[in-house]
Amino acid sequence: MNEKLSLTELQLIIKDSLYIALPDMYWVIAEISEIKENYNGHCYLELVEKHQDEINIRSRVKAVIWSSRFRFLKSFFENATGESLREGLKILVRVKIEYHEIYGLSLVIHDIDPSFTLGEMALKRQQILKKLEAEGVLTMNKDLDFPMVPQRIAVISSRNAAGYTDFMKHLTGNNYGYVFYIALIETPMQGNETEAGVIKALEKIAGHLEKFDVAVIIRGGGSQTDLSWFDNYKIAYYITQFPLPVITGIGHEKDLSVTDIVAYQSLKTPTAVADYLIECMIIAENHLIGMSKEIIDRSLLILEEIKIRTDSARLKLIPVARTMISGFKEELSGIIIDMINTGKEYIMRAGLFPANHKSRLISGTRSHLSVNSSSLTGRKQSLASHSRSFLNNTNNKVAVLENSLKILDPENVLKRGYTITSLDGKIIKKRVQLKKDDMINTRFSDGSVSSKVV
Fold first, then answer.
1. CB-based contacts of 138: which residues, under 8 Å, 6+ apart?
2. pTM score over 0.90
3. First to last CA, the chain
4. Cα separation, 441 vs 378, whole angstroms
5. Over the range 416-452, which residues count as b (16 or more CB within 10 Å of their CB) and which as e?
6. What is the full DSSP assignment across 242-291?
7. Distance between CA atoms of 63 and 70, rounded to whole angstroms?
8. How many CA atoms are closer than 13 Å to the CA of 351, on its beta-carbon side?
9. Across 171-193, average pLDDT
10. Domain range for residue 425?
11. Does any domain span residue 259?
């Protein structure tokens, strides 16, 4: 064709061609990638279809639900599925193709099939469970040993969640007086940040395993949409590999999420989790009480047996002991007689020793005094001689020092023609110590004069 068209004319041709070629309404399967409700009540969406890798986009188109229809479809969908329309949700919608000269191609949604979305959610959940089972990890957390006394609790939740408040109130206000040590790791419990937040919280707990007995994931009640955030493969896989038992109380009575299924223990509500932990403490206390009673009973039996054995042994030992004591008495009497006889003999011999020792002591003392007397006389004379010599040397040294002091006396130095110059009482030894206009004092042997430095 050689006919020249304006852009608007071409757009109108495209529009008419589309309406002629595709005049009907069509049921379309797509995933919501973006959704926004306008202030005037219209709902604007972006629909996509992804490849099998669930990452790369195969096709994309804009869509709209006009306000008059959106109010009905929104209520209808939520009542049927318990879900609200949100990003990431797969839907089956009945649409009409529309083309606008400015805004281009879009789909106008007239109807939605909630049963398809429910089936997709159930299928997704089943696929995740089959994958975990095929990997052999589905029950790994359930196979862990649960602590007998779970007192140190790591809680993954939002501080402002009603479920967390109920959990804390119920757990800390228990009627048994049990004490629990609780650490809250805050994270979003719904929305796109749920996956990353929960995994990050689990990683934080894993970095301090020695501080905790169990990990708890709790949130309050909510719609089916809120539950679907926990139908997540990555969260579930991380829980299966987690080294501590994980207890969930996500807050749904009807359905179990994948997270609930892989956890060590799944409970319906945060309050039920608190009851479970308290019940574990009751069981532990009863077990300890039973053990203590058993120990007491066994101890009493052992004591009774020991008492019987002791009494029996005592009766057997009395005649033996009497025989042994009689034998010891006879041996002791013989030893005493021997000691008396030996003592008398030593006393008789000892009476001859003092006279001999006295004579030897007197003789030795006289000899020792004679030798020491001569030695003392010699030392006395030597001491006197050395003392005189030391005094003479000391007097000579004193005389020499006295002469040196007279020579160094400042008065004698001045008499030899020297002078002493001072500034403010300090003696000047170098020229650099003076500056212009300093008043200095010069001392001679017969007086002193003051000068000004120019």
1. 129, 132, 240, 261, 262
2. no
3. 116
4. 66
5. eeeeeeeeeeeebeeeeeeeeeeebeebeeeeeeeee
6. -SS-EEEE---SS---HHHHHSSEEESSHHHHHHHHHHHHHHHHHHHHHH
7. 12
8. 5
9. 90
10. 411-452
11. yes
Complete edge-to-edge strand list for the sheet that includes strand 426-427: 426-427, 420-423, 439-444, 447-452
Least Cα distance to 82 among 254, 230, 223, 274 occurs for 223
Provide the pLDDT confidence category of residue 23 given band limits of 50, 70 and 90: confident
Domain boundary among the residues 88, 112, 136 is at 112
Q: Are residues 86 and 175 in the same domain?
A: no
- Coil, helix or strand for 401? helix
Residue 216 shares a structural domain with residue 149: yes
Q: Tokens 């804009």 belong to which residue?
A: 62
How does residue 235 score in pLDDT terms, banded at 50, 70 and 90? very high
pLDDT digits (tens, 9 = 90+) for 45-81: 999 998 877 778 899 999 999 999 999 999 988 888 7
CATH number at residue 216: 3.40.50.10550
Residue 403 belongs to some domain of the structure: no
Place of tokens 């004379």: 381
Contact, 171 vs 180, CB < 8 A? yes
Number of domains in the chain: 3
Domain boundary among 92, 112, 132: 112
Contact 213, 284 (CB under 8 A): no
Say whether both 223 and 162 belong to one domain: yes
